[in-house]
Amino acid sequence: MEGIYALMAGLMYGTGMRLMECVRLRVMDVDFDYAQIVVRSGKGDKDRVVPLPEKYKTALHEQIMRCRSLHRADLKNEVGPVFLPDAVSREYPNAGNELRWQYVFMASKVSVDPRTGLTRRHHVHETTLQKAIRRATQAAVINKRVSSHTLRHSFATHLLERGYDIRTVQALLGHSDVNTTMIYTHVLNKPGLVVRSPVDDL
């Protein structure tokens, strides 16, 4: 994968973010000083903190710089404010014009918001990322079903393989019930099934 989609896929694997959590990431949610990302309003409308992978710090910083340039051009061209949650837009009516509220992965074109009639810049559409993952899977000749969720699944599985405890992984994934996180242990040889098949001793 290349460009913005390689970065998005890398972040999903490196942080365990869901597809829409990644697509809706805002500038203010990336904390380079503390090397973390705040995932807001995840499943169950809960916030959580995930690690910002060292590998993607430079690329993410460059992406935010591109956002800043695009945002400045939008302000100059009088493009409408970015979409905000209702409570935020009521309390801070001008926040939609601030850089910190802009989407990290901005759409390449502005569009008319059907709810308000405002012309504004939204985030990239999630299907474009899904299609990029599908193309990459085909190009790599991977004969298994691969989706954006596969990256999140791999994040959890690989953390458990490295010895992180199930509660830590639960918190990083944003699961309210540890039983949901337990499904990721089924692919592990340890501490899962440790029985050796007798055919392997022949």
Poorly predicted residue ranges: none
Question: Per DSSP, what share of the residues sits in E-state strands of 2 or more residues?
Answer: 5-15%
Q: Terminal Cα separation, in Å?
A: 42 Å
Molecular shape: globular
Radius of gyration: 20 Å
- Helix percent reads 40-55%
What's the tally of helices?
A: 8
Q: Major sheet: size, sense and barrel closure?
A: 3 strands, antiparallel
Mean pLDDT: 88
The secondary-structure class comes to mainly alpha
- SS elements, strand count: 5
Strands side by side in the biggest sheet: 1-2-3
Summarize the structure.
The chain has helices at 3-15, 19-23, 57-76, 86-91, 126-139, 148-161, 166-173, 178-182; strands at 30-31, 36-39, 48-51, 111-112, 119-120. With 202 residues, it is mainly α.
Textual characterization of the structure:
With 202 residues, this protein is mainly alpha-helical. Helix content is 42%, strand content 7%. A three-stranded antiparallel beta sheet has the order 1-2-3. A two-stranded antiparallel ribbon has the order 4-5. Strand 4 (111-112) and strand 5 (119-120) form a beta hairpin. The longest helix is centred in the first third of the chain and has 20 residues, at 57-76.
